[in-house]
UniProtKB/TrEMBL annotation:
Name of this chain's protein: uracil phosphoribosyltransferase
Pathway involvement of the protein, from the record: Pyrimidine metabolism; UMP biosynthesis via salvage pathway; UMP from uracil: step 1/1
SUPFAM superfamilies: PRTase-like
UniProt entry tagged with the keyword NAD: no
Boundaries of every Phosphoribosyltransferase domain copy: 7-209
Enzyme superclass (EC): transferase
Cofactor(s) it depends on: Mg(2+)
Pfam families noted in UniProt: UPRTase (PF14681)
Source superkingdom: Eukaryota
UniProt EC number: 2.4.2.9
Annotated keywords: Allosteric enzyme, Glycosyltransferase, GTP-binding, Nucleotide-binding, Transferase
Gene Ontology MF annotations: GTP binding; uracil phosphoribosyltransferase activity
Taxonomy of the source species: Eukaryota, Fungi, Fungi incertae sedis, Zoopagomycota, Kickxellomycotina
Family to which the UniProt record says this protein belongs: Belongs to the UPRTase family.
C-alpha cells in the first residue's frame, strides 16, 4: 500500500460500512451512515492541522492559553454525493471555506465531465479537503485533484468511504503529494466501472432516485 493512502481500521467505521453496503438500507439510513462515517474519518484527516495561541482566557479555576486552528482549510464536496459528507466536515472545521465542484462520470466513456466550478481566481487557503464517498476508476477524483492543483493549493487531502483497489492505487502513484483517506478498499472493478461489493450508486441511494 502506498504511503499516501490511509485506510481506516476503526471497528465502528467497519461496522457502519457493512450496514451501508446493504441493498435494503433506506435513503434516510444511507444519509445517516455516510454522515456518521465521515465524522469518524475526519478525526484522522485533521490530525496534522496547525494550532496557534490566540490569547489568555479564564477557566473556572485558573488561566489558560486559548488555542485556535491556524490552518486555512477549504472543504470541497464533489457534487452531488460529496454533499452528504459536508456537515460532518464543517461541524469539525467550522471556520473552513466551502467550495463546490460539480463532476460526473459519463456513462459510456467513464470519463469525468466538469459542470460546476466557482473557485475564486486566487487560492487563499493552505489546504483542501475533498469529499466524495466513492472512488471507482479514479477519473473523477483525478479531475478534482487537477483542478485544485491548477488553482494553486499546496496541500490536498481526499476523503472517500469506499474505493476500488485499482482506482486508489493509480491515484496514489500519480499524485504522491496528495493524501487519500479511505474507509474501505474493494478489489473488484468491473467493465462498467462499478466497484464490488462497493456501496452502489451513492447519488441515487442518497436521493432515492435509483
Amino acid at each position: 500500500m502506498a504511503a499516501n493512502i490511509s485506510v481506516s481500521q476503526h471497528p465502528i467505521i467497519k461496522q457502519k460500512i457493512s450496514e451501508l453496503r446493504n441493498v435494503k438500507t433506506t435513503s434516510r439510513e444511507v444519509r445517516e451512515l455516510i454522515d456518521s462515517i465521515s465524522r469518524l474519518m475526519m478525526y484522522d484527516v485533521t490530525m496534522d492541522i496547525d494550532l496557534a495561541p490566540v490569547g489568555t482566557e479564564q477557566s473556572p479555576v485558573g488561566t489558560y492559553t486559548e488555542m485556535r486552528v491556524a490552518t486555512k482549510v477549504a472543504l470541497i464536496p464533489v457534487l452531488r454525493s460529496g454533499l452528504a459528507m459536508l456537515n460532518a466536515a464543517s461541524d469539525l472545521l467550522h471556520d473552513a471555506e466551502i467550495r463546490h465542484l460539480g463532476l460526473f462520470r459519463e456513462e459510456t466513456t467513464l470519463q469525468p465531465v466538469e459542470y460546476y466550478n466557482k473557485l475564486p481566481r486566487v487560492c487563499g487557503v493552505d489546504e483542501c479537503v475533498v469529499l466524495d464517498p466513492m472512488i471507482a476508476t479514479g477519473g473523477t477524483a483525478e479531475a478534482a485533484v487537477q483542478i485544485l492543483q491548477h488553482w494553486g493549493v499546496r496541500k490536498i487531502k481526499f476523503v472517500c468511504i469506499c474505493a476500488s483497489k485499482q482506482g486508489i492505487e493509480s491515484l496514489a502513484k500519480k499524485y504522491p503529494d496528495v493524501r487519500f483517506f479511505v474507509g474501505v478498499i474493494d478489489d473488484v472493478l468491473d467493465k462498467r466501472g462499478f466497484v464490488s461489493p462497493g456501496i452502489g450508486d451513492c447519488g441515487d441511494r442518497l436521493n432515492n432516485t435509483a
